[in-house]
Design a protein that fits this description.
The chain has 395 residues and is mainly α. It has helices spanning 7-20, 23-29, 47-63, 68-90, 97-114, 122-132, 162-166, 171-190, 213-224, 237-253, 257-260, 280-293, 296-304, 311-331, and strands at 2-4, 40-45, 95-96, 137-139, 149-151, 348-356, 367-375. The protein folds into four domains: 2-45, no CATH class; 66-160, Orthogonal Bundle (Arc Repressor Mutant, subunit A), CATH 1.10.10; 175-257, no CATH class; 335-394, no CATH class. It is built from 14 helices and seven strands.
C-alpha cells in the first residue's frame, strides 16, 4: 500500500494545527514525511493502482522530453531479443514471459528501463514480439498464476541477426554489408551531439550518453555477440565497461571528412589532427597515468595510439583543476567543499591521524596531520552547497 499526500490539504491542515496549539496534534503532525506538509494517513493506493494511475502517468510525462537516443537503444535491444526468440522458437522451445522480460531488462540496462518510451510493461513487450514474429503464439498456462508462454508450432521466418551468420553469401556480399554498416556508424558519429552540460565543467563519469546508441550497440554485438539464450542475471559490468571504453576510443579517433581530405604542406610534415571529441575515457586515462607515473614519454606513446589526450593537454587540465580548487577554498575560508555535498541532508565524517617520521633523534621534522573524510548519500535531496569546479581555462 502507498500513502498519498496532497500539498494544499497538507498546508491547510498544518496551519490549523499550529493555530489550535494542540500538543497531541502537533506531535502527530511532526511524524509526517515532509515538515511542511501533512501526510494523508487515511488515503492509500493498492500497488497495481499506484503503478497504473500514478507511476506510469508521471513517467510518461517525463519521457516526452527524452531524446531519440533512448529510442535507438530500445530498438537495438528489442531487435536482439526478437532475434533470440525467433531462434529459440524454431527449436520448438516454450519461452516464459518472465524469462523474456528479464532478458530484455538485462539487455537494455537499468537506464534504458528507466527512460523507456512508452512506460515499460509486459503487455507492451508481448505485443511487440507477436507483431514482429507472426508465427509465435501466446498461450496461457493451466495455473493462471504463472505467466504466459510463447510457442511456435512451426518454424518461424528467417531470423533477424542469425541469418547474416548462417547465410551462404560470398565474400563480396559480406564486405558490402560491412561497408554499409560502417557508413551508418560514421554518419551517426559525425552528427552526434551530447546532452548539454553546464559550461566550464568537465564530466568525471562515463555512461552511454557519451557515445551514440548505434555505435554502442554495434560494439557490443562485435565483442560479445547477441544473446543466445534467455538470461536470468544481469550481464557483467566488466563487459559493459569494456564496450564503453572501446566505443569512446573510436569516438576519439574519429576523423571528419574535412580532416581526412587535409593535405600536408610538405611530405616530411607530421600530421597532427585535432581531436574534437574528448570524453571521460581519454581524459581520465591521461590524468591517471600522469598522476601515477609522471612519465611524459609513456603519455606520448598512449596519445600516439589514440588512447588518451596529449601530455601538454593533461598539464593544462591539471592546472585548471588546481585553480578551480583554490577558488573553491576562497569561498569557505580555506576549506575545500566538494560539489556533491547538499544542504539539508545528513552527512557523515570520518577522521583519522596521519603521522610521518614520528621518531627522530632531536624530535624535529615530524608530521602529525589529520585527515577528515565526508560522506553523503548520492541521491540525497537538496541543493549543492558549492557549485561544480569551474575549469574554463582548460576548455
Amino acid at each position: 500500500m502507498f500513502k498519498v499526500t496532497t500539498a494544499n490539504a497538507g498546508k491547510y491542515f498544518r496551519d490549523t494545527v499550529e493555530m489550535s496549539q494542540d500538543a497531541i496534534l502537533k506531535t502527530i503532525l511532526n511524524t509526517s514525511i515532509s515538515p511542511c506538509n501533512a501526510h494523508a494517513k487515511d488515503v492509500r493506493y493498492h500497488k497495481s493502482c499506484w503503478r497504473r494511475n500514478v507511476f506510469h502517468v508521471l513517467r510518461d510525462a517525463q519521457n516526452k522530453n527524452k531524446t531519440s537516443k533512448e529510442h535507438s537503444l530500445q530498438t537495438a535491444s528489442l531487435i536482439e531479443l526478437i532475434n533470440l526468440i525467433d531462434v529459440q522458437t524454431q527449436n520448438q522451445a516454450y519461452l516464459s514471459m518472465d524469462d523474456i522480460e528479464t532478458t530484455y531488462a538485462n539487455v537494455i540496462g537499468a537506464e534504458g528501463m528507466q527512460n523507456h518510451t512508452p512506460a515499460f510493461s509486459r503487455q507492451w513487450l508481448k505485443e511487440k514480439i507477436l507483431a514482429q514474429i507472426p508465427n509465435v503464439k501466446s498461450v496461457l498456462q493451466k495455473n493462471r498464476r504463472k505467466p504466459a508462454v510463447l510457442y511456435s508450432p512451426s518454424a518461424c521466418g528467417e531470423d533477424l541477426v542469425n541469418s547474416a551468420i548462417t547465410s551462404d553469401g560470398d565474400d563480396m556480399d559480406s564486405m558490402k554489408a560491412i561497408f554499409q554498416a560502417a557508413q551508418v556508424i560514421r554518419k551517426t558519429i559525425a552528427g552526434y551531439t551530447k546532452k548539454e552540460r553546464q559550461k566550464n565543467t568537465m564530466p568525471v563519469t562515463t555512461n552511454t550518453d557519451d557515445i551514440p546508441a548505434e555505435l554502442y550497440s554495434m560494439t557490443r554485438w562485435i565483442m560479445v555477440g547477441p544473446v543466445d539464450e534467455l538470461e536470468t542475471e544481469t550481464r557483467t559490468s566488466v563487459v559493459d565497461r569494456l564496450v564503453l571504453t572501446v566505443s569512446q576510443n573510436i569516438m576519439y579517433g574519429f576523423k571528419s571528412n574535412r580532416q581526412v581530405k587535409y593535405k600536408l604542406s610538405r611530405d616530411s610534415s607530421k600530421c597532427k589532427l585535432q581531436h574534437e571529441r574528448e570524453n571521460p575515457q581519454v581524459l581520465g586515462l591521461a590524468l591517471t597515468v600522469h598522476h601515477k607515473t609522471r612519465y611524459k614519454m609513456l603519455m606520448g606513446l598512449l596519445n600516439a595510439h589514440g588512447y588518451c589526450v596529449s601530455h601538454s593537454r593533461t598539464l593544462l587540465i591539471e592546472t585548471a583543476l588546481a585553480n578551480a580548487v583554490v577558488e573553491n577554498t576562497k569561498r569557505f575560508q580555506g576549506l575545500y567543499v566538494p560539489p556533491f555535498i547538499k544542504k539539508g541532508s545528513f552527512i557523515y565524517f570520518a577522521a583519522d591521524n596521519t603521522d610521518f617520521a614520528e621518531d627522530t633523534p632531536d624530535g624535529k621534522g615530524t608530521l602529525h596531520g589529520t585527515i577528515i573524510a565526508v560522506y553523503q548519500k548520492a541521491d540525497a535531496p537538496g541543493e549543492p552547497i558549492a557549485g561544480p569546479l569551474v575549469i574554463g581555462d582548460a576548455q
